[in-house]
Amino acid sequence: MIKLEERGELAVITVSGALTWSEVRAQHVAVRARVERGGPVLVDARGLESVTGLGLRFLLALHRAGAHGGARVVVVGLGGAARELASLAGFLELYTTAPTLEEALAWLGVSEEVW
Amino acid sequence: MVEQTRIDGHPTLCWEGWQLRAGRALPFGATVVPGGINFSIMSRRATGCTLVLFEKGAASPFVEIPFPAECRVGHVFAMVVFDLDPERIEYGYRMEGPSEPRRGDRFDPEVILMDPFARAIGGREVWGAAPRHAEDVYPYRAQLMAEDYDWGDVRSPRLPMEELVIYELHVRGFTRHPSSGVAHPGTFAGLREKIPYLKELGVNCVELMPIFEFDELDNKNVHPESGEALQNYWGYNSVGFFAPKAGLAASGAAGLQSDELKAMVRALHQAGIEVILDVVFNHTAEGDHTGPTISYRGLDNRTWYLLDGEGRYRNYSGVGNTLNCNDPTVRQHVLDCLRYWVSEYHINGFRFDLASILGRDSQGEPLENPPLLEAMAYDPVLAGCKLIAEAWDAGGLYQVGSFPSYEGRWAEWNGPYRDTLRRFLRGDMGQTAVMALRLAGSPDLYPRRGTRASVNFVTCHDGFTLRDLVSYTEKHNWENGEQNRDGNGSNDAWNGGVEGPSDDPRLEALRQRQMKNAVAMLLLSQGVPMLLMGDEVGRTQRGNNNAYCHDAPWNWLNWEDRAANAAHFRFTQQMIAFRRGHAALRSPEHLRGVDSARSGFPDLSWHGVEPWKPDHAPWSRTLAFMLCGRHARPQDDTIYVAMNMHWEPHAFGLPHLPAGWRWSRAIDTALPSPDDITDVGAEAPLEEQSFYRVGANAVVVLVGRPSA
Description:
heterodimer, A: 115 residues, alpha/beta, Transcription Regulator spoIIAA, 5-stranded mixed sheet, 4 helices, 5 strands, 32% strand, B: 708 residues, Immunoglobulin-like, 8-stranded parallel β-barrel, 6-stranded antiparallel sheet, 19% strand, elongated
């Protein structure tokens, strides 16, 4: 599942459960448009259970869209099989990731209070 | 992801509830388009076609959709099916048409056929694992693959051919051994982890044995002692030409083999290492008439294969069938495939297995100007990539030196180089004159093509390893299950007096020296050197010279061999460094033995035990040459090489250097490590400047430069 919400200046994109092509197809246009508007973007993957190749691409596309629009994008909590696949595909070196929410917010320069 | 803004993103046809639209003929294969997937497949003789769709891994299809008449363009069936999840489906085709084997037609709509353009193939995702369904109606399944890899800022090294030091390796064998210590043994990811090793060794190009999808379980032979099934470990039996082998990827079961392979290529490029693929376009895994129908046979047998007048398969590959490479359709398919690997995977070149088949016409006759080879040579997408031919086939065609080159675009595996070097190395008589030609880049074979045409090698996957070349005189292929009949019986190998392992220290010293001699000769030769995986650490195959069928620890690279053979590894590493440090060894053009630089010396001169007197008598086993570095670009030291393959030492008189110059010893294979080779630039001048005593079975290299 993909959910987009605003917390002050921070855009939070929560990906959870299974991140697949059908989920991405339904959400990517709106999410991408938000990221391209700029500002700090936190992708919360702590609830992500499984991911497909197109799901991994979605995360990478957010980074590229962010770079295009001047947004700072960080993925937090990418773990387990999803992290392993991202590593095998060579994507991990292209994402900015943080192990904890606190570190992600710090990297974005956003106060923990917005959370 | 395709934006839903195009005006052709809506269905115009309906079949039993499925929304369809007439598709696009190009590109062939399955492509994600607005709202659906475009399926395009060609067949010159099929009268009808049905698309068969499976949920990934399901035993039975969930729908079969006949192509409506509106969905046919020429010989192409093309249709868009809407609302399919590209990550969840597998697809195939049933083809209708005549079944008249004696005329060459073998259509059978009972069989589900794989798309020859499939970018990914399911069914063998995990190496060696039993097929998902014992009697699968569709064992090799076409899948879709995302093709939007992010290469970042990484660019291909784009090395000139003459700068390459090629390392031929088997992706699985390279890291499958537990001693490799990688997280994902035997995979693209495992190879990626070992890039620092390749950098340390100094090679700048890897040539990967087949990585197109193949079935490692398609070998019918069994081990004669254990009775266990043997494998098709090497993989020279392609199922599809566009799909990387999923079983070579740690992520293959998750369908990310393409990304994992690209990550490996990207990392290799980042490290300055190019990637060449060993490709097998001469035949397919369908074999002869007794083999399985996987794809091509059922799509249009007469188009894809060379057949005789009775519809029987012509067999120039030695494995049952021969691809009809110069048929316009097949030719275009091969070109599409190569362009795909270059543009999608950033591959730097190809080595074509049994490449002479690519120059045969539809009757099997060799063509003077084969359209496929010419098209490859001048193709704009392939323009920057290396094309290397194994310039022979199993039908008796042998074209080393005469393979069509098209203004030097094609290089060749130089088989005569291997044979001559081996004979000279073991001290055969009558070899010095021809060995001189091989050291010079084989100007007799490539008089107008330069040294870049010659890929030099002593060993390759096919035959003995270097360690076995000096340890066995005969092949020992009993474990292959063919009563030792398989494999080449002519290896020009010499065991030194004892067949196989020996605890005689003098024999072991000779074998170590012979391995060093071979590596030195290879890296001192003009042309493009190629090393075989593991030769730098003395890898043995226990005398098996055709280990294609063994997925076993003894056939994998044992990383503990490095410590056990540290001296040989160091020697190989330093030899590569020596070659890379001396431009005189990497001339792109043949040296002519003339002094065009007015240096006082010819660019290349030949010598014997007496300077300026090469000895090519039949009984001679000594050979020396000198490269004047002032002819090189950039200018280099003068290099003198003395080779003594006699069993007795010989004193070699040294050519006089200009006043104020001195000879320094860089290499002497008769000396123990680390004195056998010195770091480039750290060589100390010799006390004796008029001669050098070269030990029995030894190679010596001196560098001449102004004394400090």
